[in-house]
From TrEMBL:
Pfam families per the UniProt record, alphabetical: ApbA, ApbA_C
Catalyzed reactions: (R)-pantoate + NADP(+) = 2-dehydropantoate + NADPH + H(+)
Protein name: 2-dehydropantoate 2-reductase
Lineage: Bacteria, Bacillati, Bacillota, Bacilli, Bacillales
The enzyme's E.C. designation: 1.1.1.169
Amino acid sequence: MGYRIGVVGAGALGLLYAGLLGAKVYTRTAEQADLIGVRGGVTVVQDGRETRVAVQAVPVLEANFERLDLVVFTVKSYQLPDLAEVIREIPVQTPLLFLQNGIGHLEWLESLGHETILVGTCEHGAGKLDGASVEWRGVGRTNWAVFRGNLEAGLRDFLMGQNGFPFVEKSDFEAMLYDKLLINAVVNPLTAVLGVRNGALIHNAFFYEVFEKFGREVADVLMRDERWLERLTGVCEATAMNYSSMATDVMEKRRTEIDSILGAVIRLAKQQGKDALISEILYAQVKGLEGEYLQ
């Protein structure tokens, strides 16, 4: 059977997931919903090839979630509290999947009354071209795990059966999120402060020295295994030509997810009685950059 998926958030990832899953997308503005309607759906661009997928778009404040089998949230972590009223309109038996960076949103998820909550990490690279078009810049996978409840077998099979857009189930949501947090906490702030692509962190000897020391500090706080450096360098190599989401946010003068990402690492370090000096310096630098343009 077919499953009805809704995606809340129409940034780069939201458009990508809506386009590749054929999902209904819920936009922040009526203007973007109208644009997707006029264009006849979402256009996914990969290696210069354009694929238009018929997608229905609705402003999120006009949403009716009654007939959906799964709702996926691709908004930034700091935007979730603003959607509290919207989320309360979703039937409690409808599963929710949250794809936010960091771990700062986990405590907030505890307050939701829904029976089944999933959390996930996204390894895809995506760039928003306009309100109805997205470039798929790097093919990865969506890792997901149960945060609360149980996912119905048919829906699980539907997700796991997505050819070319794989969903991978993990048994331990915390380990999954911490593995991704290691990458986000090191790569995102460094590239945001330096204003460079991911590959520069490993190809520039001066940047690499900071990258390695910073990575060691974060890996110690997150208690990752001895392969932490291999994982970090592998990601930078695979995404060498990409700008991280935080670097892009700074360049485009948007609020970043620094609190949910590096702020969470600093809080964990304090709980463990560990020093996290490099983390604290980079956190302050990103917050300082935000302060220059967020008035």
